[in-house]
Amino acid sequence: MEFLGEQRFDSATSVPQYRNVTITRFDAWLYRVVDEFDNAMIRGYVSYLLRIVDADHIELNLDASGRTFLLRRCA
Fold first, then answer.
1. DSSP H or E run through 36
2. Over the range 31-64, which residues count as b (16 or more CB within 10 Å of their CB) and which as e?
3. Nearest to 7, CA basis, from 41, 48, 35
4. Cβ(31)–Cβ(25) under 8 Å?
5. End-to-end Cα distance, the chain
6. Residue 61 belongs to what domain range?
7. Residue 7, SS3?
8. Coil, strand or helix at 73
C-alpha cells in the first residue's frame, strides 16, 4: 500500500487505485478516511479508521468487516 497525495495504491488486491473522498482528523494520530474506487466493473467506496501508531507503523480498522491491520513502512 502506498499513499501519494489524494490517492492510495494497493498491489495486493483487485482494485489497485483508490481516490480520497474525505479525510476527517480526530486528533494528531486518528483519522477517518473514505476512499472511492473504480475497477471498470464496479464503482464503490471503502471507509476505515487510520491510526498512526509510530513513525514506522499505521493501523487500519475497516468499517465493513471490523478487521484491523497493522502495517509497517517498507522503505
1. strand 30-38
2. bebebebeeeeeeeebebbbbeeeeeebbebeee
3. 35
4. yes
5. 12
6. 2-72
7. strand
8. coil
Q: What is the DSSP letter of 33?
A: E
Domain count, the chain: 1
Residue 72 CB partners (closer than 8 Å, separation 6+)? 56, 57
The predicted model scores a pTM of 0.80
* Confidence at residue 18, expressed as pLDDT on a 0 to 100 scale: 86
* pLDDT confidence band for 47 (50 / 70 / 90): very high
pLDDT in tens, 61-72: 999 899 999 999
**What residue type is assigned to position 37 of the chain?**
F
- Per-residue pLDDT tens digits for 15-28: 778 899 999 999 99
Rg (CA), the chain: 12
d(CA 48, CA 37): 14
